UniProtKB/TrEMBL annotation:
This is Uncharacterized protein. Keywords: Membrane, Transmembrane, Transmembrane helix. The lineage of its organism: Bacteria, Bacillati, Actinomycetota, Actinomycetes, Micrococcales. The chain crosses the membrane at residues 12-35, 41-65, 77-101, 121-145, 157-175, 181-200. Residues 203-212, 243-256 have a biased composition (Low complexity). Residues 203-263 are annotated as: Disordered. It comes from Cryobacterium psychrotolerans. The keyword Transmembrane applies.
Length: 263
């Protein structure tokens, strides 16, 4: 898969992101348009797709991308993804329970014991969603908090506070049917362009080349035009000839020069 920045490394994650975009878009259409006008069951299906399926796919994409990018260890990423998927399931059940309760109150749904029981479980589902979401955020955030200079107790307190307040904020933001669509698009674009390989640095831009003074030949090579500078020259290496010409050099250098000449 090609992108303006290069060839994407995360092809599987990108395709899964496209599936998440399509799922969220279908959920938006069912929740706001087709489902609301045709059948409450279709509107419920839109809620399931938007609040459950699309966010779960995004969590899988982000977990796989984070592991392959070496941002998060695999154990933390898998744990956070599993907790997040469980939180999405509980949140979807809470939204469905809320909708059934409103339908029963408005008389749009026949009152049955099962429907009333499902509506009464709203607080149970909501109470399950919050701890699971906070645990998922804490697991993912703990990796980055450990890299700070805070002590271990302070790191735990900071991560817990952020997770407790971030989990319901994220969950409430996904109640809006357009949020899963925008989040799916953003994650897919991130995966596509984050996979573009960086251009290799040119030899002239390398630190070794920059540190070499202009006009000075590298060590062990004669300047252009000097004897022995041509490739394949049979004369002794440049540093040995310089030491012999100036009368300097150790006995080991002289021995090496004689050996070279005898070869």
């Amino acid at each position: 898969m090609s992108t303006p920045g290069g060839t994407a490394r995360y092809v599987g994650e990108a395709w899964l992101g496209f599936v998440a975009v399509a799922t969220a878009g279908l959920g938006l259409a069912l929740a706001l348009g087709l489902g609301a006008a045709a059948d409450p069951a279709l509107a419920m299906a839109g809620t399931v797709l938007g609040l459950g399926a699309a966010p779960a796919l995004l969590l899988v994409v982000l977990a796989s991308w984070a592991v392959r990018s070496r941002l998060v260890p695999a154990r933390h990423a898998v744990t956070a993804a599993l907790l997040g998927v469980a939180a999405c399931t509980a949140g979807t059940l809470a939204a469905a329970s809320w909708a059934v309760g409103f339908d029963l109150a408005d008389g749009h749904r026949p009152s049955t014991p099962s429907a009333e029981l499902f509506a009464d479980l709203f607080l149970v589902f909501l109470g399950t969603n919050w701890p699971l979401g906070a645990a998922a955020v804490f697991t993912a955030l703990d990796v980055f908090v450990r890299r700070t200079s805070l002590s271990r107790p302070r790191r735990g307190i900071v991560a817990c506070l952020i997770a407790v307040f971030a989990a319901p904020a994220i969950g409430m933001s996904f109640v809006a049917p357009v949020t899963p669509v925008l989040a799916s698009i953003a994650v897919t674009v991130l995966v596509l362009f984050a996979g573009a390989p960086r251009a290799a640095p040119r030899a002239a831009d390398s630190p070794a080349a920059a540190a070499e003074p202009e006009g000075r030949a590298p060590v062990g090579r004669a300047p252009a035009g000097w004897p022995g500078s041509a490739p394949g020259s049979a004369r002794a290496p440049w540093p040995l000839r310089c030491r012999a010409a100036t009368g300097r050099g150790s006995g080991a250098a002289s021995t090496a020069q004689r050996q070279w000449a005898g070869a």
